[in-house]
Write a structure and sequence with these properties.
Shape: globular
CATH superfamily: Coproporphyrinogen III oxidase, aerobic
Largest sheet: 7 strands, antiparallel
CATH topology: oxygen-dependent coproporphyrinogen oxidase
Helix content: 40-55%
CATH architecture: 3-Layer(aba) Sandwich
Distance between the termini: 52 Å
Number of strands: 9
Oligomer: single chain
Number of helices: 8
Strand order of the largest sheet: 1-2-3-4-5-6-9
Radius of gyration: 19 Å
Strand content: 25-35%
Length: about 290
Amino acid sequence: MTDPALLDSYNTRARAWFDSLRDRIVAEFERLEDEAPAELYPGEPGRFELKPWVRPAGGGGVMGFMRGGRFFEKCGVHISLVHGKFSPEMAANMPGADEDPSFTATGISLIAHMVNPRVPAVHMNTRFLATRRSWFGGGADLTPLIEEQRSQEADDAVLFHAAMKAACDKYDPAWYPDYKKRCDEYFFLPHRNEPRGIGGIFYDHHNSGDWERDFAFTKDVGEAFLEVYPKIARHRMDEPWTEADRTEQLVRRGRYVEFNLLYDRGTMFGLKTGGNIESILSSMPPMVSWP
């Protein structure tokens, strides 16, 4: 069991990192809004709105939304630090909670849906959770919406995976193939027998016994995301799109909705622990279509 004073220190440091990463992501995404060429993206550049929220059962967070931007059709970057007791149903599935259902959790969660169908959607979250045990979890994955980009050999996929691999290899070369496989298995729609996107990395219950090393790894995952996704976005930013591209984008977004409502553990965790509904469901695309 983690000493309570030490756990407080861990939560404070992790939350401070998630806040700082959020601030840097917000600044970089607003730069992308400013850079988007007016001939393809008319209107005023979008800006994030940060809105604090309180969880009645303990803790809270800050929602960060950009809605209706020129380049980002919808983007959420959210921070939380919550505490309380798991329900018996949740405790049965959480390491250490069978001894004591008390928990703390802090993290950052991001989802971006783009105006241009040729710019992939992206998701990233990292978190620190503690019961009688403690661990890190999270990862990042890319979801291209156009058929020609939905291959792990496509340019964006290669660049994205290289960034995630570098973050893992700094600590252990065995981590990337393991966490890539977990991502491929997790972000999969069994009812359609197809992946949600082109993957990335996904890890959970990550505790090597060295908190500082595990925290450093989680920070490097965030750094890798902040480095690689703006590169991909800028690479695709100037590409024009057609109505057929937009139609395909909206249909593929439907797959995103299906996964998040049927299989996503983060959505279930938030709903079952009394999280903020607006931020939990912010991953839903603003417009979607089913043929």
